[in-house]
Design goal:
Helix content is about 30%, strand content about 15%. It has eight helices and nine strands.
Length: about 350
């Protein structure tokens, strides 16, 4: 199944000329016998590498496959692969919009050639699946590092309430901001930052996941050849007003979503209540934002600093929002005051 998105969207220039795209391979494919999976044994922090993923999954090397989650996107499994614990994401085809499903699958690979401690690492991706694993409703499979079963949404709203003291939510916020700064430095806009898309490791380290709505901009900071239909998707409660209006994509759209996510970490509340269309209209036309007035957590000196920070993150004018690097500086200052 060829991708509707040009291969150059995902491949470094030094690899693209040797790409051999077959009917059952992703745009990441190299010659099948020349593509070797490499599972790094140490964390590569902030380093760009382009040959740490593979377009081939050796299914016979996959063992102990256990389902750990499912949703509208498909299913996620935990497995052993070549001695490593990995996560497998089987992406489901949307019967209503097959093109959007395929574009979402390829968008998942926008950051496949990048490595950072706060971004979930892609190991392999393929549309070739054995009959006992794939089915007609599947587009393909993405193999990723196994971070764990927890995400920030579960930590914030879980039945068993975990402590979220200021030092913890600031650290979580910093992890997300570092991940965003790295992605933005490589012109990748996530466009669906929210607690459910931030995985939390056993060491309590946060990693950005789920790139199905992501877009890679070119060096002129314009959308590359094809903008996925998922540009109109995402999660409306966290989506920047300019995206709700179908306007220009930028890194500042992720900063808006970050602000909503940080507010959730601080308050453990839902950002909005009410009908979806009403909320979207109010965010765009009436500058609706999560409640900060009369909230006890925003009354202290630290709380007032956070209130100012959040108001900048979700400013209606995207130019008034922080960059990810500025956000890191602000959060470091907050942590220094603890």
């Amino acid at each position: 199944m060829p991708s509707p998105v040009p291969p150059t969207r995902f491949l470094p220039k030094d690899i693209y000329p040797s790409v051999d795209i077959g009917t059952c391979s992703s745009p990441l494919s190299k010659h099948s016998f020349g593509s070797t999976l490499q599972v790094p044994t140490q964390r590569l922090q902030g380093k760009v590498t382009s040959r740490l993923w593979s377009s081939v999954i050796y299914w016979k090397e996959l063992h102990c496959v256990q389902p750990i989650g499912s949703g509208g996107f498909g299913s996620v499994y935990k497995a052993k692969y070549l001695g490593e614990t990995v996560a497998l994401k089987k992406v489901k085809k949307c019967t209503k919009n097959k093109l959007a499903s395929r574009q979402s699958f390829w968008a998942e690979l926008n950051a496949a050639h990048l490595r950072h401690r706060n971004v979930v690492r892609v190991i392999a991706a393929t549309t070739c699946m054995p009959t006992d694993f794939g089915d007609e409703s599947s587009i393909g499979t993405i193999m990723m590092e196994y971070v764990g079963k927890r995400n920030l949404h579960q930590i914030i709203y879980g039945c068993v309430e975990e402590p979220l003291a200021p030092d913890r939510w600031i650290t979580c916020s910093l992890d997300i901001a570092h991940g965003l700064q790295f992605l933005h430095s490589h012109m990748i806009m996530h466009l669906d930052i929210k607690p459910a898309n931030v995985l939390v490791s056993s060491e309590d380290e946060c990693k950005i996941a789920d790139f199905g709505c992501s877009v890679q901009l070119n060096t002129k900071r314009e959308a590359s050849d094809v903008v996925p239909l998922s540009h109109a998707g995402g999660t409306y409660t966290h989506r920047a007003p300019e995206l709700l209006k179908g306007e220009e994509i930028s890194d500042k759209s992720d900063i808006f979503s970050f602000g909503i996510t940080m507010w959730q970490l601080m308050t453990r509340e839902q950002p909005y209540l009410g009908d979806r269309q009403h909320v979207i209209y109010a965010v765009v036309a009436q500058n609706l934002r999560p409640k900060v007035e009369d909230q006890a957590i925003f009354q202290s000196e630290q709380g007032r600093d956070c209130k100012t920070l959040l108001s900048r993150c979700w400013a209606a004018d995207s130019q008034c929002r922080f960059s990810a690097q500025e956000l890191i500086t602000q959060l470091e200052n907050l942590r220094a005051k603890l």
